[in-house]
Every structure is written in structure tokens, then in C-alpha cells.
Amino acid sequence: MLLVEGNQSSVTLFILLGFSEYPNLQVPLFLVFLTIYTVTLVGNLGIIVAIRINPKLHRPMYFFLSHLSFLDICYSSVFTPKLLEILVVEDRTISFKGCMVQYFFGCTFVITEMFMLAVMAYDRFVAVCNPLLYTVTMSHKLCKFLVAGTYTYGGTCSLTITYSLLELSFCGSNIISHFGCEYSAILSLSCSDPYFSQMICLIISIFSEACSLLIIFSSYIVIVVAIIQMPSTGGLRKAFSTCASHLTAITIFHGIILLLYCVPNSKNSWLLVKVGTVFYTVVVPMLNPLIYSLRNKDVKETVTSVINSQLLSHSI
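Predicted structure:
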């Protein structure tokens, strides 16, 4: 929909194509994504509740894990409900303001999660390399400061990029070849010079990815050296088990983001971009609780005890 202002028209509505090029897959995709979203909500809320009710889990590692679960719920909820809606209804529109709000929150939560994973890598570094002073070093005050810093940085970066998009003019096509308001999809509809926005996004993306990966790699290089120098196999096994879940989550999250960075900007690549975005906005939030709960003894025991107590109460 175009709104005419003077001699210039501006877009007030966008049409999300989603996966409309595959009409026979709309219902199966809806059921698959609905199932994944349900598992995401139940799994991540389960981890948050488990950490809250078990005093054994009131440690820095699980404090950060609860925030990671919260972020997974948030950025999955930014995109998935709209994705489910456009799969089953004919009206696939989203307002210009709604699109910018969706992009702002999606970008905020992705950048925040990127640095939350980096903070968790630093936490594992302290736990493995300096276990005797772990609780002193990772004080509750420091943990809250690190978490607040990740949210602040994510929000600031997202606000900057969103502002650069709002400075663009949208006066041509209003059809977004995506299921959500993804940056490159929005930018492709601009009828003004996108250079400033592209440079802002490029600088923030490179700086954020480089900094988070530098923290992660530095932490794990020192961890690997410390593990190699451990005399006992028991200590080696324990150190590896504390890092394995986190390394799996990092590999999946950053692997998909780096893959999307490497995708050439062409019409032929839109399907790959959509599939990649589905993975990090829909699938990854579901995988994280499975990764951490299946590989973590304390979380497994807490979740199992909660489920058993609920089943027992219902049977009575």
C-alpha cells in the first residue's frame, strides 16, 4: 500500500511472501514450525524454572544459561508467530512500523545472544582455569553487570541499524521475499541510496562477530591448554563436560550466521537466506534447551524431578 505525500509516495504496508512459492507445503510447514515453537517455549521455560527452583543451580553458569533461554524465547517469538500466521491466512501484510519493530527486536536479541555466548565462554574459562577462586571472581555483581552489558550493547546496535533503515525511502515495491523483516530483504525495497545503512550494518556486524568470536576463541584456547596440562583423567573429563554443551551451541549459532554472511546478494540466494534465517530464529532456540539439558546432569535431574512430582500430583 502506498501513501502519497506531495509528489512522493511512501510504503505503509509490506507483503511477506514467506514460503508462498510452495503452496502444497503451507500446512505441513505450519505444523512443523508450530511443533518446534511449542518445544522451544516448553524447553526454555523448563530450564528457567529448573534453575529457579533448584538451589544447586544458583551458580553463575546457570544464571547465564537462564538468560540464554530467555533470549531464545524472545527472538523466536519475534518471528515465529508471524511466520505461522502467513502460512495459514491469505492476508500476509505487515505495517511499515510493525516491520521496523520486528526488525529492531529481532536484531536486539540476536546480537545480545551472540555476546551472551561470549560471556558464557569467559565463565567456563574462569571455572576451568581458576576453579578455587571461581565463586569469588564470578561474583553476583559481576554476573549482573555482564548480562546488563550484553542487553545494552544489543539494544544500542539494533537501534542504530534500525534508525539507518528509517532514514531510507520506500516508494516502489512493497513485497518482501521473506517470512519476516530481515535486513537484506528490507534494504532491497529501498528507492534511496542505502550506502549509509549498509556501512553502519557492516561495521556493527563485523565488530560484533569479531569481538564475540575473539572472546570465545581466546577463552577456549586457554581452556584447552589447561585441560591438556591436567594430570588426572577425572579432571579432564569434568572440564570437557562443562564445556561441551556450550561449544555445541556456539558452533550452531555462529556457523549459521557466518553462512548467511557468505551468501551472495542475488535473487537465487533468497531461498537459502530464508532457510538459514529459519534455522537461527526457529530451530536454534529449540536446540539450545535440548543441548544443555541432555548433556547436563544437574539440569536433567531437576527437570526429571519436576516432571515426576507433577505426574505424582496428577495421579493422586
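Summary: The longest strand covers residues 2-5.
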